[in-house]
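I'd like us to work through together how a protein chain folds, taking it slowly. To get us started, please write out a protein record for me. Label the sequence line and the structure token line clearly, so we can match residues to local backbone shapes. Once you have written the record down, we can walk along the chain together.
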Amino acid sequence: MNSVMINDPDAISALLKSSKNIAVVGLSPKQHRASYMVAAYMQAHGYRIIPVNPGYAGDLILGECCYPGLIEASREHAIDIVDCFRNADDIPPIAEQAIAISAPCLWMQSGIVNVAAAAALQSAGVFVVMDRCLKIEHQIRPNLFSDTSNR
């Protein structure tokens, strides 16, 4: 996907269809937070959620062990999407980790844009989604998942 444009709708559809594991960076255990709501929705639709938050490392969030970083999470899980709930200024080190673990996609949630990090990711062959909500992108594609049990 390295030659695919950022936020390409067809690439997003293909990504959502082929992905199984989503590392959620900045996932909060607080049910009222957007990170929790998006992750819970995706989990309810058949995706494996891999929580990444150094403040909750070792705790369970959504029934899954939380990791301090992507490197640690990747030692135990294949990661298809790195979903970021962090400020734009916090994205570059997350992007470096995503490149280091060969993550196919780094997804910056609504309101998060970091052009420099996106350029570095694309140069490394990582598909980038910026300023889009993973849950909404999944919800607007109901026909995409009609042939699978949960997705």
Summary: The two ends are 22 Å apart (CA to CA). The CA atoms of residues 1 and 127 lie 6 Å apart.
